[in-house]
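haha ok so turns out i had the wrong file open the whole time. this is the CORRECT one, sorry everyone. sequence first:
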Amino acid sequence: MTYQIPAMYQSMRDSTMSNPDLDVVIVGAGAAGVGCGVVLRHLGIERFAILERHEVGGSFLRWPEEMRFISPSFPSNGFGLLDLNAVALQTSPGYMLNREHPSGAEYAQYLQTVAKHFALPVRTGVDVRTVEPDSDGFVVHTSTGSVRTRFVIWAAGDFQYPKLYPFPGAEHCRHNAMIGSWREIEGNDALVIGGYESGVDAAIGLAALGKRVRVIDSSPRWESVSPDPSHALSPYTLQRLERAHECSQIELIGDARVTSVERRGDGYSVSGDDGRTWIASAPPVLATGFTGSLDLISEHFDWADEGYALLTDEDESIRCPGLFVVGPNVQHGSLILCFVYKFRQRFAVVAHAIGEQLGIDTSVLEQYRAQGMFLDDLSCCDDTCEC
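then structure:
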C-alpha cells in the first residue's frame, strides 16, 4: 500500500526555493546512494552531493570477511538482462569482479569504480547529524558544517545500525555486524541467536572453520517456504545450510525465543522463553537484525503499525515533502525492497519525481524502464508461480 501527500503539506512541496546551495543531497554512498547518484547524472542534474560518513561502500567493507552476496552476479548485459547486483546501467559486478557471489570488500570495489567512472560528487568523512526542514527545503547539518538543499534522498541503509540490545544480557554477545571474521570466535563450539540470512550465514561460516554450531530462532526461517528471500531463506543460503546440517555441524533450534544471556564462569548461559537453557563457551553471536538508519530522522515520517515508514508512490515521506528514501528501508505494505535487485528499481522513480519538480526533461529515464530499473507499478510485484 502506498500513500499520497496530504493536501495540507502540498503547498510546502510546491514552494519555490529562494537560493539553496544544492538541488539534491544524497545521504549515504552505498549501493543505493551511488545508484541514485548515477541516475541524477543521467538526468543532467549537476547541483547535488553524496554525503558519506566513511568511504564509498563503507557498510560492505565492514561485512564479516567470509560473508557473500546471496543474489548471484552474472554478466548478461549483452542479452538485455542487467546483473542482479548492478546499481547502474551497463555495469556488472560479476564481470568486473569475476565473482558470482561477491564479498563485501569486492562489492565495495565495484561501487567505488562506478562512483569514479561517473564522477559522482561524493564527500567522504561527512557525518550527517540532522535533517531540518524549512520553507525553502532542508538544512542538512553535518560534522563539517551545514548545507541547504531543495531535496534530500536518504540512502544511509541499515547495516551500520544493528539491534544491539534485543533482550537483557545482550551486551555479553557480539553482533554479526561488528565481527570482522568468523575466525575471531574462539573455541570449538558457537551459538548463534537469529536464524534469518545473517544468522544462517554466520553459522555456515563458523561451521566451515570446524566448529559445532547451534542456531536459535523463534520463527525458524529455514522452515519457511516462499519464492521471496525477503520472507524466507534464499536458495543459495538453503543449499549451503543443507550441506553443513547433513554433516551434523549445525544444530537448528526453532520455536525458541531467547529472553536473556548471562555470564557464567568461563561461559555464557542463554535462556529461552520455554524454560530451556543453552551453554556457550564463547560470546553468542547476535544475528538479530538492524534498527535501520531511518531512526535517525524518524520524526520526519509517519509510521505503519508494523514499523516501516509510510511513503508516497514516489517513495517520498508523506509527513515531510521533499524527503525521499531509497535502499533497504523502503517498504510498501507487505512488499519489502531490501535487496539490491529490488530497491534499485526505485532509483529512477525518485529521480523522476525530483526531475519533474525541477522542470527537467525526464524522458532519458525510459532507458531505465527498458532495463527493468523503473518500477512505478508495485501492483505487479508478485513472486508466486505455478511451478
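The first strand starts at residue 22 and ends at 27.
again sry for the mixup
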